[in-house]
Amino acid sequence: MLLKVLGTAAGGGVPQWNCACPGCSGARAHPQWRRRHASLAVRADDDHWYLINATPDIAEQMESTPALHPGPGARRTPVAGLVLTDAELDHTLGIARLREGDRIEVLATGPVRTALRGQAHLDDILTPYTKLVWRELGSRPVPLCDGSDVEISALPVSAKRPRYAAGGGGADGSPTQSPTRCPTQSATQSPTDPLEPWVVALRLHDRRTGGTAVYAPALAAWPEPFRQALADADCVLLDGTFWDDDEPRRGGFSARTATGMGHLPIDGPDGTLHRLAPLTARCFYTHLNNTNPLVDPEAPQHKRLAEHGLAVAAEGMEIAL
Question: What architecture does CATH give domain 2-162+196-320?
Answer without folding.
Answer: 4-Layer Sandwich (3.60)
